Amino acid sequence: MILATTPMPIETAATDRFTLAGRDYSSRLLVGTGKYKDMAETARAIEASGAEIVTVAVRRTNLGQTPGEPNILDILPPERYTILPNTAGCYDVETAVRTCRLARELLDGHNLVKLEVLGDEKTLFPDVIATLKAAEELVKDGFQVMVYTNDDPIVARQLEEIGCIAVMPLAAPIGSGLGIRNPLNIRTIVENAHVPILVDAGVGTASDAAVAMELGCDGVLMNTAIAAARDPILMASAMRKGIEAGREAYLAGRMVPKRFASASSPIEGLFFQH
Amino acid sequence: MQIILNGAVTEVADALTMAELIAQLRLADRRLAVEVNAELVPRSRFSEHRLAPQDQVEIIHAVGGG
C-alpha cells in the first residue's frame, strides 16, 4: 500500500535515536523471549536481532525444579538489556496490576512494564476498557507503562493522556503473523502521538517490520515472527535489517508515487529517431 | 498448618516466616517475587513476615514470553 504524503521527519539517520523512559537506544527492534526451542536458541536470536529491550513474562516458580536450572534472566545481563516484563495472560485489571507489582519486586524496583489486558482467548485482542483502568492505576503507582492496545487512534490518545510512556497498537492478532492490517490507523496514531508508538504483535516477516517503520512508528515489538521462523536466528537478523531499512526509508522521505512512467535515462541526445 | 503454595495445599510449620519457607524450598538464591493473599511481600520483609493458616502464597519468577 502506498501513501503519498509522508510527513517530513526532523531527524536524520546520523542523529536518529530511540529514546524511551529517558534512555537512548540504537535498536528500534524489541523482542520477546517466548516459544524458542531452548535457552541457547533464545540467546542467539536476541543477539542476532540486535535488540536492547527484551520482554519476559511472570509465572509461578516450578517448586519441583532442579536447583541450578537456567532462568531467562541469566541470559539477559542488566547492563546490556532493558528487561520489559509483560502482563501476558491477564484478563482483568487486578491481575495485571498484581503482575506488574511482582515484576517490579523481581527486578529490584525497575518500574518499566508492558501492560496488556486481554479480552478473549481466540483473538487475544485487548480489553481496552480494562486496559485504560489498569494503565491509570499503574501510572499512579509510579510505573512507566508501555501499553498494548488496539489500532484505535482514540484509545491510543487516551492512553497517552493517562500518562503511558509508549503506546503499542497491534498490527494484527498476537502470534498471527498477518502483517499490518490497518496501516492508515497506525499512521493516524503516529501522527497524533507525543509519545513513542510501537507496533506490538502481528508482524510476520521482515517486510512487515519495514512497513511499520515506514509508517513512522518508533519501533516494533515482536516474538513469534522470529521464534516460529524455520531459522529463528536468520529471521532475527532479517528483522533487524527490516527495521533499519524501514526507518531509513521513513527518514529519507519516499518519492511521490505517480500513475505513469517517468524515464530515468535522459530523453535528450538520443542518436536515433523515436 | 496448611497454606496454599502456588495453588497446591501444603503443610508447613506453624508461624513459619517467609524467609524460612524460601530456604526450605531451596530458593534462597533465586530471583523471585512473592505475594501472600494477593498482596506483594517485599524481599526486605521475608524474615519478619509470618505465614498464617490458609494463606495463599504465590512465588513467581521470570520466564520467556512476548
Architecture overview:
The complex is a heterodimer of chains A (274) and B (66). Chain A has helices at 39-49, 93-106, 128-140, 153-162, 183-192, 206-214, 224-227, 232-252; strands at residues 18-20, 23-25, 29-31, 53-60, 82-85, 112-115, 144-149, 166-169, 198-200, 219-222. Chain A is of the alpha/beta class and 274 residues long. In chain A, the strands form 3 sheets. Chain A has a 5-stranded parallel β-sheet with strand order 5-4-3-10-9. A 3-stranded parallel β-sheet of chain A has the order 6-7-8. In chain A, strand 3 (29-31), helix 1 (39-49) and strand 4 (53-60) form a beta-alpha-beta unit. In chain A, helix 1 packs parallel to helix 8 (232-252). Chain A starts with 17 loop residues before the first strand and ends in a 22-residue tail after the last helix. Chain B starts with a strand and ends with a strand. Chain B has one helix at 18-24; strands at 2-5, 8-11, 33-36, 39-41, 56-64. Chain B is built from 1 helix and 5 strands, in the order E-E-H-E-E-E. Chain B has a 5-stranded mixed β-sheet with strand order 2-1-5-3-4, with no helix packed on it. In chain B, strand 3 and strand 4 (39-41) form a beta hairpin. By secondary structure, chain B is mainly β. At the A-B interface, strand 4 and helix 2 of A face strand 3 and strand 5 of B.
